[in-house]
Design goal:
This protein has a domain of about 30 residues. Helix content is about 35%, strand content about 0%. It has two helices and no strands.
Amino acid sequence: MIKFTTGNLLTTDVEALVNTVNCVGVMGKGIALQFKQAYPENYRLYKKA
């Protein structure tokens, strides 16, 4: 079942958030940029890998 809601994905009460990434090491637009700004340590580790 699909449930549509409105709100801020990054501040919702959930067990996990998943941000898909590529092999380029850039999170410059859209939801990727929002994750980069909200979780800078995650971005640092992603870019280093």
